[in-house]
Design goal:
The structure is a single chain. The protein is α/β, with parallel strands linked by helices. The protein has a single domain, classed as 2-enoyl-CoA Hydratase, Chain A, domain 1, CATH 3.90.226.10. 51% of the residues lie in helices and 16% in strands. It has 11 helices and 10 strands. The strands form 2 sheets. The chain has a 6-stranded mixed β-sheet with strand order 1-2-3-5-7-10, with helices on both faces. Strands 4-6-8-9 form a 4-stranded mixed β-sheet. A hairpin with a 2-residue loop joins β1 and β2. α4 packs across α5 and α5 packs across α6. The longest helix is centred in the middle third of the chain and has 19 residues.
Length: 254
């Protein structure tokens, strides 16, 4: 969890800042990042201090590392371990005892959008863009968006994002209630801290209990998505979509 790790944990003015630090792959989750996130949450959850999550580079988070999924397709136990780890990380973020803020500095897609949904509040830089995007790769959400997105922005809007794979910009995200504020890039950190402070001044017990009531069924949501995905990955069509993505990525890198 040092500042040069793939997850950086910093203390600033009494707040925890959790920085996803795989900028070359747009801060996509892999197993190592998830384990570091879990370790960071182990260190912070007991304090109930505000937790602000952001990304390094030009992306907030591009979700799961699809090439890592492709490498695990023939190992169901490895896939199950990965999604159990993913669920543990997202459950811990949702159940974090203090306020959590997503400081969205760039692209937030698939699991990145789910990370925004898992946080209590969200601030977006003007350049931020959002999409569920799973369906573009023949997949569906695995970290809560199938339910949480609709609760945040409304069922019809959520269905559009989930089923179309389309991107929206920061201003549209604010209009539909996905984020609380849109600010210039230079004001992202300050505004995120200000929103956290507005909650942190209240009773820690009241904040913790209110959060517990808001999302009391997170474990069941994550379990349902995980079991569906594990079955979905056995579908030949899913394999075909992931292989096509991998081939496109490799051709761009040449």
């Amino acid at each position: 969890m040092s500042k040069d790790g793939i997850v950086c944990l910093e203390e600033r003015d009494g707040y925890h800042w959790l920085i996803l630090n795989r900028p070359r792959v747009l801060n996509a989750f892999d197993e190592e990042m998830l384990r570091e996130l879990l370790a960071a949450l182990d260190r912070t959850s007991g304090t109930a201090q505000p937790l602000i999550i952001t990304g390094a580079g030009r992306a907030f988070c591009a979700g799961g590392d699809l090439k890592a999924y492709l490498a695990r397709l023939d190992d169901q136990e490895a896939m199950r371990r990965y999604f159990l780890l993913l669920a543990d990380v997202f459950r811990r973020i949702v159940e974090y005892p203090g306020v959590t803020v997503a400081a969205v500095n760039g692209v937030a897609v698939a699991g990145g959008l789910e990370l925004v949904c898992a946080c209590d509040l969200a601030v977006a830089a003007e350049s931020a863009k959002f999409a569920d995007g799973h369906i573009n790769y023949g997949l569906h959400p695995g970290a809560g968006a199938s339910v949480l997105l609709g609760r945040i922005i409304g069922e019809r809007r959520a269905r559009w994002l989930l089923l179309s794979g389309e991107f929206i910009d920061a201003f549209e995200a604010e209009r539909i209630g996905l984020v609380n504020r849109v600010v210039p890039e230079a004001e992202l950190e300050q505004t995120s801290a200000s929103l956290a402070a507005a909650v942190a001044r209240h009773s820690r017990s009241a904040v913790r209990r209110t959060k517990r009531l808001i999302i009391s069924d997170i474990q069941e949501i994550l379990r349902a998505e995980r079991e569906s995905l594990l079955e979905h990955f056995r579908d030949p069509e899913t394999r075909s979509h992931l292989q096509a993505f991998s081939a496109r990525s490799e051709s761009k890198a040449i």
